Amino acid sequence: xxxxxxxxxxxxxxxxxxxxxxxxxxxxxxxxxxxxxxxxxxxxxxxxxxxxxxxxxxxxxxxxxxxxxxxxxxxxxxxxxxxxxxxxxxxxxxxxxxxxxxxxxxxxxxxxxxxxxxxxxxxxxxxxxxxxxxxxxxxxxxxxxxxxxxxxxxxxxxxxxxxxxxxxxxxxxxxxxxxx
Length: 180
Hints:
Layout: H1 2-6, E1 15-17, E2 28-31, E3 36-43, E4 48-54, E5 61-67, E6 73-79, E7 88-90, E8 96-101, E9 104-109, E10 114-119, E11 123-128, E12 134-139, E13 142-147, H2 151-156, E14 172-175, E15 178-179
Antiparallel strand pairs: 1-2, 3-4, 4-5, 5-6, 7-8, 8-9, 9-10, 11-12, 12-13, 13-14, 14-15
């Protein structure tokens, strides 16, 4: 049926909170109206969960910060570049969020405003260290570990390699077994 192929339906996605270990009792649905959920980043310190999702009728992707207690949307921003959903993480101090894009990774501030883009092909993962001192970024074939104190400089300088901060002991990159 061509009508179904033109407008495929997606199953409804929901966010559930459960007791640990995952129990069949004591679970509650936080939200069930977000459409397709591509990624979730939990930060207990914030009392919220960051959700990368696409509404049922739309083509653009949104990041919503949702209260863990009420399920209310605390903040939401939309950007078509966030479509990959590869690499989605929230810093331990809740001041920065990283989201993978088709052209690398974007750094966002606590208000989900764009800070900078670190260009790279095939972004596949991102994770802040538990202590917040480092950010690890994964791409197909290589990875990069950056000190979080220097993130703004790295992300702002990405489009101009000559302005990129000099590699130091704190920043490590590995490609095909070589470290630079």
